[in-house]
Amino acid sequence: MKALVYTDTLELQYRDEPKPEPDPGEALIKIEAVGICGSDMHAYHGHDARRVPPLILGHEAVGIVQTGQYKGKRVVLNPLITCGICEHCQGGRSNLCVDRELIGMRRAGAFAEYIDIPERNLLEMPQDMDPVIASLAEPVATSLHAIYLVEKISHRPLSECRAVILGGGSIGVFAALILKHKGCRNIYLGDTNSLRRDTAEKLDFGTVYDPLDQDQPEPGSFDLVIDAVGSGRTRASSCELVKAGGIISHVGLQDNEAGLDTRKITLEEITFLGNYTYSVLDLRAAIDLLYRGALGSLEWIDTRSLSDGAEAFREIHEGMVASPKIVLRP
Ligand SMILES: [Zn+2]
Ligand SMILES: [Zn+2]
To answer: pTM higher than 0.90, yes or no?
Structure first.
């Protein structure tokens, strides 16, 4: 089969690889669509010690089951393989599983014609749903999970909150669209890339700004800050922008530098919330939102052939891509 293989820092090769042979309990899936994630870019930059080349990356995938009891069905893959028996798995928080493993990290990912994956990681989806749209379920579920955690502790309903999102990648943009869907009418989004700002502006959810500009949103004015970058700088901005009693939702994983103002966090009772991936229910909710068109027109998704994947990575790396999400099709 053909696959896009991460072979070295800043290097991907589209080449022949052995077709996977599923073990008992696994299914072979023919991939129809697979999105490029920020974490794939992180690996491509050589910054992820967990992803060692040569490796097939990619985990935001939809395909047709080729073997086993679900043969012939179109499915979304839950890329998070978990043990199923630890306290977190059994408590419905499988994203915290002690043995969790993401496809495209140690085992092969989905930038390929085929993948093998445990049958319990297959998610039902409407069979007439566009596979490109369905492949967005994973990033949408990440944003949805973050907002769900916020909703549980927010002092006021989201519709009354003033929210700012740092980072206009797919997690940031989906967070903005989900907040809008939930009735939030006071949404800001900051991104340093002008192409991405242009895309975000067209989605009409609120105010888009450049964090490097003179003109900045008012410090201490947001009930909710979603940090979809996760760098020392954005953590410092989050602390500046958040209102007393507000919430910082930390989703990005760019670096582990300092940046938090723990004095302000304490004196002003700021909640700092970590978020990692999603539960199976978040994924199902994401599929449903996408199928119902609740996040508006998704024409801004950039779709390309898997054989052009190396070029897509290079363009994202060089900041030349206006769309926050490229989906590859084998
Ligand atoms: Zn992802
Ligand atoms: Zn577990």
So the answer is: yes
